[in-house]
Specification:
- The complex is a heterodimer of chains A (about 130) and B (about 280).
- In chain A, strands 2-1-3-4-5 form a 5-stranded parallel β-sheet, sandwiched between helices.
- Chain A is built from 5 helices and 5 strands, in the order βαβαβαβαβα.
- Chain A is globular and about 30 Å long.
- Chain A has about 130 residues and is α/β, with parallel strands linked by helices.
- In chain B, the strands form 2 sheets. In chain B, strands 2-4-5-7-6 form a 5-stranded mixed β-sheet.
- The longest helix of chain B has 30 residues.
- Chain B starts with a helix and ends with a strand.
- The N terminus of chain B is likely disordered.
- Chains A and B meet through helix 1 of A and helix 1 and helix 3 of B.
């Protein structure tokens, strides 16, 4: 996992910092964007190995981020893990249809669980 | 890794936000998030509450993550570690309450998503029995006798959202355990009558006072004797159960249970079978 770059788009600083710190301890190179537009700029500048994306963001929603990435043909090449406290069936289906590779409900996971999912995504079983 | 007082401090502040939440805090500082969230304003009270509850989950989640991390690094057997575990458990309890209230506010706003599928009576029976088996320890802890009766079911089809029906069964069972005194009994009956799949949960509990019976399925309503017995509940379980059963075209009813001279309640859920 050494050197794999993960971008987190998460406006809640507390959550974002906790997750970034945990992933860094697991050896990932982690960058954090507190809003969608900054996150999109970072992706265009340097493509990460994985995007962890919140859905409710202050500027544009995570769904719109997915749409933009899909239109720019960055998705499906870039795996996008949704990490949100939304999680109704319609929201999950919408995100998956826009190209998300996974959908995690924040309150149902701890940091170790999210890190395991990240590892599975970046290093699929042979 | 040593214990970070900074992280622990932040976690405790967030716990404060979760326990004593101020609507002003969420509609002010946190309210900015609302712009990108369906449905479009103006919202009903239920939708507004759902949004507030949704936002409460975020700091609670952060606290859960932080406390677990700090707990893992606390010295084994220390008082500190025990307190952190208590904080973690309390956080989970608040989070569960928020989830329950969120489901209720969605239901009152008419925003429940259903995932209906055609299934058969045997499958639903198996799922309910498995669920009861997993929950039965709570009855055993109170020395409550649990009897489960299944009448042989002809395999018939019905259209259900299994998760919602399991929630209904869980709510009725948990209520039965909660309001039945130690040494009492609970009987669960599963059957079908050609038109309906039926499950009944009968307890020897405290019963529902006559004056409260008309409002028992109303959101946030709690019968007087239930409030006295369990002050810390919210009165949303039966409201949700009725909402879910109604969406299936079924019925949920209750009646006094005078079996063995008791004073309990029997709840009956009927779900319509698909007719050929």
């Amino acid at each position: 996992m050494e050197g794999k770059k993960i971008l987190i788009i998460e406006d809640d600083r507390f959550l974002g910092d906790l997750l970034a710190s945990h992933l860094k301890k697991s050896g990932f190179d982690v960058d954090l964007a507190p809003e969608a537009k900054t996150g999109l700029e970072k992706i265009r500048e340097s493509l990460p190995s994985l995007l962890i994306l919140d859905l409710l963001l202050p500027d544009i929603s995570g769904f719109e981020v997915l749409e933009t990435l899909k239109n720019e043909k960055i998705v499906p090449g870039l795996p996008v893990m949704i990490l949100s406290n939304l999680g109704q069936k319609a929201e999950i289906e919408r995100a998956m249809s826009l190209g998300a590779s996974d959908f995690l409900i924040k309150a149902h996971f701890d940091l170790d669980g999210i890190t395991s999912k990240v590892k599975q995504t970046l290093e699929p079983a042979h | 890794m040593g214990i970070s007082s900074e992280v622990l401090g932040a976690a405790i502040i967030v716990l404060g936000a979760g326990v004593c939440f101020s609507i002003g805090w969420f509609t002010g500082k946190r309210g900015r998030k609302i712009a990108s969230t369906p449905p479009t304003p103006p919202w009903s009270a239920g939708e507004h509450l759902a949004m507030i509850l949704h936002h409460i989950r975020t700091p609670l989640t952060g606290m859960m993550w932080a406390v677990k991390e700090v707990w893992e690094s606390a010295p084994e057997g220390s008082e500190e570690k025990a307190k952190l575990l208590r904080i973690y458990d309390e956080n989970i309890r608040i989070l569960s309450a928020v989830e329950e209230l969120l489901s209720s506010s969605r239901a009152s706003a008419g925003r429940v998503n259903y995932d209906f599928e055609v299934t058969d009576t045997n499958k639903i029976e198996q799922l309910i029995l498995r669920g009861l088996s997993e929950m039965s320890s709570s009855a055993h802890e109170k020395n409550i006798s649990l009897h489960i009766e299944t009448k042989p079911l002809d395999t018939k089809l019905l259209k259900t959202d299994l998760e919602k029906i399991m929630t209904v069964a869980q709510t009725l069972f948990e209520n039965a355990v909660m309001y039945t005194n130690p040494g009492g009994n609970i009987t669960v009956l599963l059957k079908e009558d050609g038109s309906y799949f039926i499950f009944e949960i009968a307890d020897s509990g405290i019963g529902i006072p006559e004056k409260d019976r008309l409002r028992i399925f109303t959101e946030f309503f709690r019968a007087e004797n239930a409030q006295k017995k369990v002050p810390s509940s919210y009165g949303v379980g039966l409201f949700l159960a009725k909402t879910f059963v109604d969406a299936h075209g079924g019925t949920i009813t209750f009646a006094p249970n005078h079996e063995n001279g008791g004073n309990g309640t029997v709840f009956t859920v009927k779900l319509p079978l698909l007719q050929k």
